[in-house]
Structure prediction request, 285 residues.
Amino acid sequence: MKILIFGRKGQVGSALMALLADQHEVRGLDQEDLDLAESDEVETTIVAYAPDWVINASAYTAVDKAQSEAALADAINHLAPAAMAKACADLNCGLLHYSTDYVFDGTADRPYLETHEPNPQSVYGSTKLAGEQAVMQEYPRAIILRTAWVYAQQGANFMNTMLRLAGEREELGVVADQFGSPTLAYDLAQVSVSIIENTALESLGDVAGIYHATGSGMTSWHGFAREIFSLAGKTVKLNAISTEDYPTPAPRPHYSVLSNEKLQRVFGVALPAWQESLAGTIENL
Ligand SMILES: NC(=O)c1ccc[n+]([C@@H]2O[C@H](COP(=O)([O-])OP(=O)(O)OC[C@H]3O[C@@H](n4cnc5c(N)ncnc54)[C@H](OP(=O)(O)O)[C@@H]3O)[C@@H](O)[C@H]2O)c1
Prediction:
C-alpha cells in the first residue's frame, strides 16, 4: 500500500515509520517538509501523492503552551486535519487520525466510552476535539484513535523527564490524584498498523468512527513514576502530591481512563498492560 504519514519524527509517527517502511511504500512528512500551520498546501500534497492511507500522527502537543498559543494549536490540531479529511474524501482513501483523553473533563469515575460527551478543559483538548469533529464531518469514513499519556524511548515525555530528574534530585513530588493509562507509542503504532493492514478500503464505512486506544490498566502519575524508578533501579525519594500542589497553565482531567472495549470488539486488538510495556522500554534503554 501507499501510505502518507504526517508527523514522521514524533513519538507515534517514528514508530509508524519503522513498522511500515519494509512492507509498504511510505512517505513521511514533518514540519520541515510541510508546515501544517500553513494548511493551504495540505490538500494538494495529499492529492498529488494519492495514497491508499493517510495517517496523521502530527499535532501541537505542548499542552501548557497551547493556553497562550491557541491560534497555532487550532491550525495544527483542527484546521490541518480538516484539510487532510477533505483530501481523503476526494481520493476515497483511508484516514487514520489520533486524538486525546483530554477531550474529557475528567469528572467520571469509570472508564470513558466513545459515546461519553466530551467537555475539554484546556485549549489543547478543545483544539483536538474540534479536529475530531472536523475530520468526521469532512470524511465520515475516517478512523480516529483517542490515546493518552504517550511515551517512547526517545522524545519529550514523562518517562524521560522522570529519569532525568532522578539523576538531578534526591527527592521528587509527583501528582497522585490524576489517573490515566500510560501508552507506549510503539504499542499504539502496532495497533494502528494492524487496523490499516486488516481493513479493506471498501469496508471503511463499516468500521469508521472514534475508538479509544491506550495501554491496558491505569495508574496515577505518581504510580507511573514509582514504576519507572523501580524498573530503572533509581533510589530517588518519591512524594505523592495533589493537583493543587502542582498548578499548571492548562487544567488536566483528574480521571481520564478510556475503555478500550470497542477497539477490541471491532478490530480484535488490544494494547499490552502498561507495566509490561514500560518494563520492556526501560530494559532497552
Ligand atoms: N503525547 C501524549 O501524551 C499524547 C496524549 C494523548 C494524545 N496524543 C495524540 O497522539 C498523537 C501523536 O502524539 P505524539 O506524542 O507522537 O506527538 P509528538 O511526539 O509531539 O509529535 C508531534 C509531531 O507533529 C509534528 N508537528 C508539530 N507541529 C507541526 C507543524 N506546524 N507542521 C508539521 N508538523 C508538525 C512534530 O514535528 P516536529 O518534531 O518537527 O515539531 C512531530 O513530528 C497526536 O495526535 C497527539 O495529540 C498524544
Summary: The radius of gyration is 18 Å. The longest helix spans residues 70-91. The chain has a mean pLDDT of 97.
